[in-house]
């Protein structure tokens, strides 16, 4: 089986008709970077089911890398997540409370994992191409963090790069969110292409 990078995105949620994480992932499905092919997968916005989907996909495809994408409405840049914590709150509106009602993503597992993506190299490459990006220290306590944590835990005994990148609202969503930042889908897609190229070169 040829090497693949598993690229995940989410279905729309919160009354949205689209989710830029899946729109970007779908556009890149089948693309090759340094001989590594992208396998895109759409995840449900549900902590338990999304976690199991990622765990099952890693077992099925044995990917050379895993990159999760998610929507973070209000963030103005591509957010390269550094840390996933072992905490999941299944209610999005509780995320503002820091997950006080949350439970472990995986019972008995470590408190946190650091990303295994080459964040400094990705950040440098994005800035060279003038794509707004920054390192983030919080992937939240909802499904995005759950997916990142589940992937890193599943791959804990391997050297497989894995991590997560949050995307802003897509420009087409700005009509519903006029007071917050958004970004053109083409810009986000270009940014994730650059990230995947950087990851593939490091394999």
Q: Would you mind describing this structure in some detail?
A:
The protein is α/β, with parallel strands linked by helices. Helix content is 32%, strand content 24%. The chain has a single domain, classed as 3-Layer(aba) Sandwich (Aminopeptidase). A 7-stranded mixed sheet has the order 2-3-1-4-9-5-8, with helices on both faces. It has a two-stranded antiparallel sheet with strand order 6-7. Helix 1 crosses helix 5 (185-202), helix 2 (47-61) packs parallel to helix 4 and helix 3 (119-128) packs across helix 5 (185-202). The longest helix has 18 residues, at 185-202.
List keywords for this structure.
203 residues; Aminopeptidase; seven-stranded mixed sheet
Output the radius of gyration.
Answer: 16 Å
What helical percentage do the residues reach?
25-40%
Inertia-based shape: globular
Overall residue-averaged pLDDT value: 92
> So how many helices?
5
**Oligomeric state:** single chain
Strand content: 15-25%
Task: Give the SSE string.
Answer: EHEEHEEEEHEHEEEH
Here the CATH topology equals Aminopeptidase
Tell me the name of the CATH homologous superfamily. Peptidase C15, pyroglutamyl peptidase I-like
CATH C-level class is Alpha Beta
The appropriate CATH architecture is: 3-Layer(aba) Sandwich
Amino- and carboxy-terminal Cα gap: 16 Å
């Amino acid at each position: 089986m040829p090497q693949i990078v598993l690229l995940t995105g989410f279905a729309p949620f919160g009354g949205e008709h689209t989710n830029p994480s899946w729109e970007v992932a779908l556009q890149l499905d089948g693309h090759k970077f340094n001989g590594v092919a992208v396998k895109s997968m759409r995840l449900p916005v549900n902590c338990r089911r999304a976690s199991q989907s990622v765990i099952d996909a890693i077992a099925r495809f044995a990917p050379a890398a895993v990159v999760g994408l998610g929507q973070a409405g209000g963030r103005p840049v591509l957010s390269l997540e550094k840390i996933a914590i072992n905490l999941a709150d299944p209610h999005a509106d509780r995320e503002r409370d820091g997950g006080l009602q949350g439970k472990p993503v995986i019972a008995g597992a470590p408190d946190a994992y650091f990303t295994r993506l080459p964040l400094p190299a990705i950040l440098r490459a994005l800035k060279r191409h003038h794509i707004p990006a920054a390192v983030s220290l919080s992937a939240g306590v909802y499904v995005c963090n759950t997916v990142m944590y589940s992937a890193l835990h599943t791959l804990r005994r391997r050297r497989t790069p894995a991590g997560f990148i949050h995307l802003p609202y897509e420009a087409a969503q700005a009509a519903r969110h006029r007071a917050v930042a958004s970004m053109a889908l083409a810009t986000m897609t270009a940014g994730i292409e650059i990230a995947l190229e950087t990851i593939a070169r490091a394999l």
